[in-house]
Amino acid sequence: MRFNLNLKKKFQKFCLLLICLLVLIFQSDIPNLKALTMDNYQSEMVIEELRLKVPADVKAAWLDAEKEIWEPWLSSQDGFLGRQLFWNREKEEALILVNWKSKKLWKNIPMSEVNLVQQKFEDNVKAALNVGQNPFELIYEGELDKQR
After folding, report:
1. Nearest to 51 by CA among 92, 16, 17
2. Are residues 20 and 69 in the same domain?
3. How far is the C-alpha of 78 from the C-alpha of 103, rounded, in Å?
4. Distance separating alpha carbons of residues 54 and 88, to the nearest angstrom
């Protein structure tokens, strides 16, 4: 009799533990069911976000180089929709927002090509300011997804 009682209690504990585990497993899976895979974002518009340190005394050289180097190159890229340049006087920082038709088109641009254009930009700035290194430090780069 005592053996049956012990077995019954153990079975009840086992069932309770099994139920708890099942609840936890299914609870933790719910956000994954609602989440979109990253592939779904490949075809949606994305905004490239860049922040640079741009001291006030070289702001004009930055704007000129942006217009002469980056603007024509970006305009020739498949998926480029436009860009906006902002400058914060207090922080002496620039914010560049580049709109792309899709993340896939943006990320299909070879980094070697981007690096060549960046080198042209830096050479332009160094020549204009007669300095040995690029005065515009990249602070942050990221992306923004348009919300519906």
Report:
1. 92
2. no
3. 11
4. 9
**Could you give the dihedral angle defined by the CA atoms of residues 70, 71, 76 and 77, in that order, rounded to the nearest 10 degrees?**
60
Which residue in 56, 51, 74 sits closest to 121, CA to CA? 74
111 & 129 share domain: yes
Task: List C-alpha distances in Å: 5 to 1, 45, 63, 79, 83.
Answer: 6, 65, 83, 72, 75
Rounded CA-CA distance 111/118 in Å is 10
pTM, two decimals, is 0.70
Tens digits of per-residue pLDDT, 22-52? 666 666 555 544 444 455 556 789 999 999 9
* CB burial string 94-111: b at 16+ within 10 A, e below: bbbebbbbbbebbeebee
Parent domain of 17: 2-35
